[in-house]
Write a structure and sequence with these properties.
Alpha-Beta Plaits, about 40% helix, alpha+beta, 3 domains, about 325 residues, 12 helices, Uridine Diphospho-n-acetylenolpyruvylglucosamine Reductase, domain 3, globular, 7-stranded antiparallel sheet
């Protein structure tokens, strides 16, 4: 979460927790210099914002996972830092109430947070054990929201967090904790940021490929499906999420009765099952991790032949000898 390479961000159209307000990487790319597999160098976009001058090859390159060209120059759109921010930690007695609260904040109240992160109880328990710490209501809460708000003024920020806090409490939140210092904020976010490491510490064979996205209205149903799959396979599936944009990260922990040799295939099959469910809800099999090798089979299975033929044609035009990142995506 704290380190990344900008070229990789562009190649994957990376997202993250603040997409709900600031959008994916694509939104902040004005131009690219690209070396094509043929050795030609092309410049796409530039230091301007409007461009209807032909097909948008700039946006075709963004998210192409290194299969169409290599980026050697990137022109970024920078945004000003927020005037003031505040972080809220909100525990809930059940998952569905926590998820429904997000819709009440964004849709009903019309408030657009910077980020809204979700963690279920299992995620929090495993991560806090790894960090050797505890957070509020850990013995009672089944889910947590971490909500970040911003405003240009202190008064505006106070109005925002008071309104959001009231919505949370009206939705049966166990409490609303407002970070009063930078240290408080860092402690709140550390639990979310160390999610993957916490799971690895608990299970070195944990599969961290979970990354489905569904419409916000379908998040409660998708969470129920994840629980059903957990019970079906008698396995633990800790789930964190960039919940405000419907991007869920259900991670699979190896059941004790499954051998190390059997586990990779089993995990792949379960992820395929989750992906098909997410697509059935009007979502997609990846919100930010991309396709690569791991999700290629289910990607090919769930895309229409017309879409796949167009993608194959694009790949062939850009890379006729199939030398760039071969075997990925298509």
């Amino acid at each position: 979460i704290e380190t990344s390479f900008i070229s990789g961000n562009v190649a994957t159209n990376a997202g993250g927790g603040k997409v709900i307000k600031y959008g994916n990487t694509r939104r902040h790319i004005l131009g690219l210099e690209v070396v094509l597999p043929t050795g030609e160098v092309i410049e796409l976009g530039g230091k301007f914002r409007k461009d209807t001058w032909g097909y948008n090859l700039l946006h075709l390159m963004i998210g192409s996972e290194g299969t169409l060209g290599i980026f050697t120059k990137i022109i970024l759109n920078l945004v000003p830092c927020a005037g003031r921010t505040v972080d809220l930690l909100v525990p809930f007695g059940n998952i569905e109430t926590a998820v429904n609260t997000v819709a009440d904040v964004i849709v009903s109240a019309g408030i657009l947070p910077v980020a809204v992160e979700f963690m279920d109880k299992l995620s929090v328990d495993l991560t806090t054990k790894y960090l050797n710490t505890k957070i509020a209501f850990q013995d009672k809460a089944e889910a947590y929201l971490i909500i970040q708000l911003e405003s240009e003024s202190k008064k505006g920020l106070e109005n925002l967090y008071e309104k959001v806090g009231e919505i949370c409490l009206n939705n049966d939140a166990l409490d609303v904790f407002v970070a009063e210092s930078r240290t408080d904020s860092e402690n709140i976010w550390k639990v979310r940021q160390e999610f993957a490491e916490g799971l690895r510490a608990a299970d070195p064979y944990v599969s961290l490929s979970g990354d489905v996205v569904v419409p916000l209205s379908k998040v409660p149903e998708m969470m129920r499906e994840i629980k059903r799959i957990s019970e079906k396979y008698n396995m633990r599936i800790p789930t964190a999420a960039h919940i405000a944009d419907g991007n869920l990260h259900p991670e699979l922990m190896k059941p004790a009765n499954v051998s190390i040799g059997e586990w990779p295939k089993m995990a792949e099959e379960i992820y395929e099952e989750m992906t098909e469910i997410a697509i059935g809800f009007g979502g997609a099999g990846s919100g930010e991790h991309g396709i690569g090798f791991i999700k290629k089979p289910i990607f090919l299975k769930t895309k229409s032949e017309a879409e796949l033929n167009l993608m194959r044609g694009i790949k062939k035009v850009f890379d006729p000898n199939y030398i760039l990142n071969p075997g990925k995506i298509i």
